[in-house]
Amino acid sequence: MTDSTDVKPTTKARTKTPTSSGAQNILSAAEELFAQQGYSSISINAIAKQAGVSKANVFHHFDTKETLYIAVLQNASIEMGHLIAELDSGNGSASQQIGRYARQHLQNLFDKARVTQLILRELQQGDKDESVQLVHNTLNKNFTSIVNIIKKFQDQGEFRQDIEAAMIATVLIGCNLFYFQTSAVLDQFPELAFAKDPDNYCNQLTDILLRGIENKSTD
Amino acid sequence: MTDSTDVKPTTKARTKTPTSSGAQNILSAAEELFAQQGYSSISINAIAKQAGVSKANVFHHFDTKETLYIAVLQNASIEMGHLIAELDSGNGSASQQIGRYARQHLQNLFDKARVTQLILRELQQGDKDESVQLVHNTLNKNFTSIVNIIKKFQDQGEFRQDIEAAMIATVLIGCNLFYFQTSAVLDQFPELAFAKDPDNYCNQLTDILLRGIENKSTD
DNA sequence: GTCTATACAGGGATAGAC
DNA sequence: GTCTATCCCTGTATAGAC
């Protein structure tokens, strides 16, 4: 998309920043629809209708569809960043901290389901440069946040050191994301006690994980 | 990756079944493109070009774009089913069996990357009835396959029984899928030893998992 | 800032020759 | 079975009135 329009708003420095409430409506509508259906399935028309404005108005606030999409992604990334930043607080025993982290993390995924879906989408198909970067940053924040906690307990000798901290983080984050991703499908298996019960899932997960990584020198 | 297995051209079953080689080319091209870009981003034109035929020819073999997509999904589901069916064989100790299962499962995901991507896509957004069913079936096969193994060892007293077998299966499958999904992004973190090394990842995962679920009554 | 109207390209799908 | 040519619709994006 290098060859775009040569008509640029030369008058003002703010190149259509979403400050006005109209733009915010559009942004919010776009976030919802993109998260549900993906980029290419969603037309500007659909977004305009959802936002309660005209199609042309969307293009007034955002130069192109892709610009709008990137704006949505950036919003999502920032929002996710804030959530992650709030995660690593707290104290208590190793198992308490890890357990709390896992629960809160999973809770956040569901609370911000749309944002999570957007990130997952990009994770699956990062073709645009910006999106790759955003996903990378988000995952990075997530990783370092939990990795630091784990390393602390590794240094204290409470967790095994023959497993990479990043590996443990991957298991935790990966399982939570997988649970989020499959929750709709898991609902169809009535025999699974944890299918409709995130807390149950999280408890069992941390139970396995903690026992798997605690430093028991019983051989 | 030319998987062009010769198929005999049956003269019957004219209901546009993908028996002819032309249809197979289209199906294969569609699989590749749909897996990479998703349903709505890919035009029939693109598929036709990739398959080396005309656009009209695609519609000769498949009534609609959606028909073609469903056919691709069904192929994928069948292929995945075959892979899963081959997984649960083998014997040895509990850790050997679980470890082998995990390794083979992850290997399959990468070997059939396109198929895996298609399933993941549908997992994320099952709106069409058929696709929901296919994903459901595939996951179901996967689950029961590994759940049975785990239950066996639970009955033998080697694994804890206070954790659902399905939960353990979820962790295993979920982690593998997450690793597959993020492998492109993980590559960008050079400090992760397992990022470019699926075997390493798998070994650490099963290490954690096995220690987390084995029935140690050392309290 | 918001609209109606419009330009233009590309999408899915069909008709009919070969 | 395969093609070219075509239809109609919807998509993105622009122009210009208010």
Largest sheet of chain A: none
Number of β-strand runs of chain A: 0
Shape of chain A: elongated
Q: Indicate the CATH topology of the largest domain in chain A.
A: Tetracycline Repressor, domain 2
Low-confidence stretches of chain A: 1-18
Average predicted local confidence, pLDDT of chain A: 88
Q: How many helix segments of chain A?
A: 9
What would you call the structural class of chain A?
Answer: mainly alpha
**Largest interface summary:** A-B, 55 and 55 residues
**Order of secondary-structure elements of chain A:** HHHHHHHHH
> Residue share in helices of chain A?
55-70%
Q: What proportion strand of chain A?
A: under 5%
Task: Please give a quick description of this structure.
The structure is a homodimer of 219-residue chains. With 219 residues, chain A is mainly alpha-helical. Chain A has 9 helices and no strands.
Characterise this structure.
2 copies of one chain form a homodimer. The first copy, chain A, has 219 residues and is mainly alpha-helical. The first copy, chain A, folds into 2 domains: 21-62, Orthogonal Bundle (Arc Repressor Mutant, subunit A), CATH 1.10.10.60; 71-213, Tetracycline Repressor, domain 2 (Orthogonal Bundle). Helix content of chain A is 68%, strand content 0%. Chain A has 9 helices and no strands. Chain A has helices at 21-37, 44-51, 55-61, 65-85, 94-111, 113-124, 129-155, 165-186, 198-213. In chain A, helix 5 runs antiparallel to helix 9 (198-213). Chain A is elongated, with a radius of gyration of 21 Å. The termini of chain A are far apart. Residues 1-18 of chain A have low confidence and may be disordered. Chain A binds a DNA duplex (18 and 18 nucleotides) through residues 5, 7, 20, 22, 43-45, 53-57, 59-61, 63-65.
